[in-house]
């Protein structure tokens, strides 16, 4: 009977032990997929979190970069404005003041004069009373020898004359075209000494006062004129000079001219 009881006990205990051992082997295999799925889900969540964090950081960096570029742009504009203002300030500082009007005659001048004139010739009795002229001057040398300004000049000088010859009387005009040079030197402020030398041609036109159109050709001949002059000139204004000059002419017709000289400085 004992062996029957042992057999029954073994039949009950052995299957239970086998069943328990099988459950132990099966339990890890059934629980492992659940753990792996949980691990995968957690990794996905971590990756998403990392992605969101990276995106957030990237967005922050981009915003910071944009803000930095905007700030740099504003600073660049301010710097350019500052440079522009600085350049304008430098230009304003460097800008030279207007040059004062230099004393004496300028580069160009236009002159005129009124005065007394005496003309003589080899034939006939010549008389003249007044004359006027028109002159244009251009400075060709400044401070020559440290003292003189030299001007090239062109001058037109007409003068009225009366001539008596062989019991006949004539009235006419002597036109003189002169080209030369004029030098001036400052004596005291605004006062200048002036000297000139000119060479040109004198042309005479006469008409008989008795109505006879015939004129002795020896009286109307044209000839060479050489004139020298001297005088003073004073700057009454920055652009106006007033003075006196004496001119002596040699050549076919001899002349003496003395008058008031007025020049407009250009």
Key terms:
266 residues; alpha+beta; Porin; 8-stranded antiparallel beta barrel; 1 helix
Provide a descriptive summary of the structure in words:
The structure is a single chain. With 266 residues, this protein is of the alpha+beta class. The chain folds into two domains: 1-97; 108-265, Beta Barrel (Porin). It has one helix and nine strands, in the order αβββββββββ. Strands 1-3-4-5-6-7-8-9 form an eight-stranded antiparallel barrel. The longest helix is centred in the N-terminal third of the chain and has 93 residues, at 2-94. The radius of gyration is 60 Å and the shape is elongated. Residues 23-33 have low confidence and may be disordered.
